[in-house]
Design goal:
- By secondary structure, this protein is mainly alpha-helical.
- The protein contains 8 helices and 4 strands, in the order ααββαααββααα.
- Helix 2 runs antiparallel to helix 8, helix 4 crosses helix 8 and helix 7 packs parallel to helix 8.
- It is globular and about 60 Å long.
Length: 202
């Protein structure tokens, strides 16, 4: 399992403390993929630039797709730009992949056979692994989960010790991108409200 898949699984928990927006999750998944690629030696980070490494991508299909999208020639891509480019609809791609792998199933909500469907996690070793990482407070997964609001985040004394400047840089950029997305949402809400008020009149 990859960090990205573990993050998606815990975000799909049947009773999460907070609902995670698809846009937020997609940005965090793109960041998790970067961390997985760094761990595999497929890329390195120089400042805020993603530099291709010497190792081949892991066998995971989605991680292989991510590796294939890495800019191979200078000027290399910035972490923030990667998050927005790779993150577009990425949560939907993970949902499709996990459904094909039998990790997710679609169930009808309510008693009616034609009622709306909801996606549920299947009790698999992958799910147990992801939940185990979260319960153990594994620092990288905990930091990414905090970025998308899966929990209230650790207190100052319990802040995850990532122990690596590169990992810290990626996680910090995920936090910033999620905050930027939220700012865009709030601005649109204000604009839409103002527009509705104009049409409504005095």
């Amino acid at each position: 399992m990859t960090t990205a898949k573990d993050l998606f699984i815990i975000a799909m928990d049947p009773e999460p403390e907070h609902t995670v927006g698809q846009g937020d999750l997609s940005l965090a998944l793109a960041g998790a993929e970067l961390l997985d690629l760094i761990g595999a030696g497929a890329i390195t980070v120089d400042g805020d630039l993603i530099v291709p490494g010497g190792s081949s991508a892991p066998d995971d299909r989605l991680l292989g797709e991510a590796a294939a999208l890495i800019t191979r020639q200078p000027p290399y891509e910035r972490i923030e730009d990667w998050l927005w480019r790779r993150g577009r609809d990425l949560s939907a791609a993970y949902q499709d992949a996990l459904e094909k792998d039998g990790e997710l199933t679609q169930q009808r909500s309510g008693r009616l056979p034609f009622g709306p469907k909801r996606v549920e996690l299947v009790d698999t070793p992958s799910r147990r692994h992801a939940v185990g990482r979260r319960e153990e407070g594994e620092p990288v997964l905990a930091a990414l989960a905090s970025a998308v609001g899966l929990d209230d985040g650790p207190s100052a004394e319990d802040e995850p010790r990532l122990g690596d400047e590169t990992v810290t840089a990626v996680v910090a950029t995920v936090h910033e991108a999620v905050m930027e997305l939220e700012a865009v949402r709030q601005r649109r809400t204000i604009e839409n409200t103002a527009f509705a008020n104009v049409w409504r009149g005095p």
